[in-house]
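Hey, I was hoping to borrow your eyes for a little while. There's a protein on my desk that I can't quite get my head around. The fold is given in discrete form, as structure tokens running alongside the sequence. I'd be grateful if you could look everything over and explain what you see. Here's the protein in full, and shout if anything looks odd to you:
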Amino acid sequence: MISGSDGVPEDGDETAFTAEATTPILRDACHAAGLDPTGAELLRLGSNAVYRLSSDPIIVRIAQDRTALPEMERAVGVARWLEASDFPANRVPRDVTQPTTVRGRIVTFWESVQEQVEYATLGEVADLLRRLHWLEEPEHLGLPYFDPHAKLAASLTALDGIADRDREFLEERATEVGKAYDRLDFVLPFGLIHGDANIGNVLRHRDGHAVLIDLDGFALAPREWDLILTAMYYDRYGWHSQEEYRTFVHHYGFDLMNWPGYETLADFRELMMVAWVGHQAATSERFAAEFEKRMRSLRTGEGRDTWGAF
């Protein structure tokens, strides 16, 4: 918790991405936006430092990536477009100019969905994705074409603090899976995707309906990318039950696991997941142990049902 100006930690190392380093960024960003950071709660520290204000129903996100300004500009634009389209998604405050850059970090402000985190059902996730996939591309936003090769390569290039043998294995695995991916024959229409569609990004609004959050990955791509995580979470890791997955398939109207390219797409997405955990490995023993566990699974093909969910 942030207790106020007298209790704010010293600025410290501004190159670090820690609670101590992001606290003064939160303070300055809120003051510039006319908001009060007193009592703000740090909800999550990963790719973003996510704070909930106690003075207003506002979520503040501070991006770890210092080059994320175009991505965050697009996310804010997507939020406003979805609101104009009456699509149930996370909203941005209308009276706050954003995104903003504070101490070299990109900051955005979002309306709080509710005071406690409550996830939607997989049926609701599927309903939102089906509805999203029916929307026409908003040309004025200039959404990028999703390039999974470039995304994975950039993630692996920036992956520091892991053993050389792990890096070499991941790079070789990425080359192998990338070749198989290029031979895939996608069957769903190409178009608008969320980019990180899973139950963790669909929350229950305080008024009861489900809303889509984390809008910075919107892109143009085969729609299979928005279905792969739910299928993997059920099939590979056991994070969803069979009944939950059947409900998802029934509501969306397509079972990705019946598509011949499922395993290859799952392998590609799994590498992205492992690389993400690798980026966090130096931050805690929990992440370091999880990265080691996942690397062992990739090498042996076993133990995926013991992976932890983040």
